[in-house]
Amino acid sequence: MTLLFVGMGFMTLLAATTLAIDVGMFMTARSQAQNAADAGALGGATALVFNNYDDRSVSGPAVQSAINTALANTVMANTVSVQPADVTFPLGPDGQANRVRVNVFRVSNRSNPVATFIGPIFGVPTVDISATATAEASLANAQSCVKPFTIPDRWQENSDGTTWTTNSTYDLYDQHGNPLPDADRYIPADQPGYTGYDAVRDKGMSLTIRAGTGNNVAPSFYWSWAMPGGTGGDFYRDNIANCNNTVVHFGDPMTQEPGNMVGPTNQGIDDLIAQDPGAEWDTSTNSVRSTMHPSPRVFPIPLYDPDYYETGIQQGRVATLRMANWIGFFVERRSGNNVYGRVTPISGIVDGGAGPAPAGAFPKVIRLVQ
C-alpha cells in the first residue's frame, strides 16, 4: 500500500511539474509569437506609409517588411513561419484599406512546432503555437515637433492657365482688390476634392524654400511664426535644430514672428544637418538613406491655408495664418538663404481631445488595433 501511495504521489508530482514547466513554456511561446505578429503588422503598416502605400503585392515593401520584421522575432529560440499569404490587408471600420494583418506560426503542418519538455512522457511531444496582429496607418489629427516656419498648402492653379508647379503663385484678386474671374482655388483637407499635398503623389518632390517677400503666396516662400513657449532668435533657432513638443492641430492660428528670421533660420538648418551629415535622398528608392532611424533631417513643416491668408489681406487681416496641414520634409542642403529638400511621408499623432482627422490629412499614425 505504501508503494502504491508513493507511486501515485510521484505521478501527481510529475503532472504538477508538467503544468509548471510545459504550460509555462507554452505561455512564454504564445507571448513571443504575439510579439512577432505585432512587430510584423507594425512593419507592414510602416512600409505602407513610408515606402509605397499602393503596393500590396507579394514582392511589395509592405508584405516583405511585414515578413522580415516578424521573422526577426524568435519563439523559444527558433524562427516563426510567415508566408506571403499570411500577410493580408483588411479594410478598417471606415472602409479604408489602411490595415495590415499578419499571422505567425510554429505548428506541425509547417514543420516547426514547439517541443515540450515533460510532455513526451504523456504522448504530447509538441504543441502548435500561432498568433495574429493587425496594425493600422490611420490619419493623424495633430502633430508635434513642427518647425517655426510655414509654407502654403498646395492649390489648384487656374489664373495662369497652367497646372500647379513650385513656381506658381496663389492669385485670387487683381491689383485693385477685385476677384479674378479665373482665380486659383484652394479646397481644405476636411472637404471633398482637397487640393493640397498628398503623401503618395508628391513623395520625392523637390522643394526649395526661402523667406517670403511682400504678400506673395508661393510654394517656395515661407513665413516665420511665433511658436508657443518663447520668443526671440535663439528660441526660434532652437526650434529648428531640435524638437518643440507643442502639439498643434488643424485650424490653429499662427502669428507671424516679428523681425528678420533669415539668419536664425539658416543657423538652425545648419545645426540640423550637422546632426546627421551622412543622410541623403536615394533617388532609386525615392526615400531617405540614413544610419539614423528616423533621421533628424526629416521633420514636419506646417502648411497654412492660402485662401484664408489671401482673403485676410484684402480684409485688413495682415499676416494672419491658419494651420491647414503638415508635410514631411527632408532637408538636403542649404545654399545662401535657400533651403533645398524633398517632400516625404511623415508620421503624426492622435490627440484624443481634438476633433476627427480630415480625410486629406497628410501625416499618418501607425498603431496596433488588434
How does this structure look, described?
The protein is an alpha+beta fold. The protein has 2 domains: 2-139, no CATH class; 142-362, no CATH class. The protein is 25% helix and 25% strand. It has 5 helices and 19 strands. The chain has helices at 2-50, 61-71, 233-241, 262-274, 306-314, and strands at residues 74-75, 78-79, 87-88, 99-106, 114-115, 126-127, 129-139, 142-143, 149-152, 206-211, 221-224, 248-249, 253-255, 280-282, 287-289, 298-304, 320-335, 338-344, 364-368. Strands 9-11-10-18-17-16 form a 6-stranded mixed barrel. Strands 3-4-7-19 form a 4-stranded antiparallel sheet. The longest helix is centred in the first third of the chain and has 49 residues, at 2-50. The protein is elongated, with a radius of gyration of 27 Å. It starts with a helix and ends with a strand. The model has no long low-confidence stretch (mean pLDDT 90).
